[in-house]
Amino acid sequence: MQAFSEERFPLSVAFGTSGGPERLTEVVRLSTGHETRNQRHRHSARRYDAGSGVRSVKDLAAVLDFFEARRGRLVAFRFRDPLDRHSAAHGQAVSPFDQVLGEGDWEKRVFQLVKRYGAGVDGYERPIAKPVAGTVRVAVGGEETTGFAVDATSGLVTLNEAPAAGEAVTAGFEFDVPVRFDIEHLAVNIAAFEAGDIPTIPLVEVRP
């Protein structure tokens, strides 16, 4: 059994979910009143609850089918975050200049897709491993190019030719979040004819 399925969680349910990034920080308060803080992981992990996205018996059936096919928590899968799902700023269209992937050095041809949050030295760079096939646009030195290939299972972009030294490599894309179910039992409730709910469907981000 594969550990990851490239199939996406039902979109009709995903767009009604709640959730977002989680950070694990250890805080020690000293006798002086000062604190020391240490982040346990470099990257945040997203958590979602898709229970609120179930609006019909059709949704119930779709989630039940998907849960069984993934064997519960065993197999991870793609999930479309209803708020954070592309490289552009909120409310703007994707462009090949959205995110800086790196600079050329006459040799390097492979670049990891990333999304940056914040600006300057305090900004956070998030690796993007699950771009949506057919949505990735790339530019080299400020000019959009079609001379590249992208691995939609890892987020690696391979240019046909290595960029010149100092040339910026940028990209725009849509993406999914790799997650798994964080529940062993799916509690389906049929409240009435053609109506029902699943109180909670917790999902947690994984590293593919």
Describe the protein's architecture and organization.
This protein has 208 residues and is mostly beta strands. It is 8% helix and 39% strand. The longest helix has 13 residues. It is globular, with a radius of gyration of 20 Å. The model has no long low-confidence stretch (mean pLDDT 91).
Record the SSE blueprint.
Blueprint: E1 4-8, H1 11-14, E2 18-22, E3 25-29, E4 35-39, E5 45-49, H2 57-69, E6 76-79, E7 99-103, E8 110-112, E9 114-117, E10 124-127, E11 137-140, E12 143-145, E13 148-151, E14 156-159, E15 168-172, E16 177-181, E17 189-192, E18 195-197, E19 202-205
Summarize the entry for a quick read:
This protein has 208 residues and is mainly beta.
What sequence of helices (H) and strands (E) makes up the elements?
Answer: EHEEEEHEEEEEEEEEEEEEE
Approximate helicity band: under 10%
Find the count of extended strands (DSSP E, 2+ residues).
Answer: 19
- What's the overall geometry? globular
Determine the oligomeric state from the structure: single chain
Could you say which structural class the secondary elements and strand pairing correspond to? mainly beta
* Proportion of beta-strand residues: 35-45%
Low-confidence stretches: none
Lateral arrangement of strands in the main beta sheet: 1-6-16-19-5-2
What gap, in angstroms, lies between the N and C termini? 15 Å
For the CA atoms, what is the radius of gyration? Answer: 20 Å
Largest sheet: 6 strands, mixed
Total of helices? 2
Mean pLDDT across the residues is 91
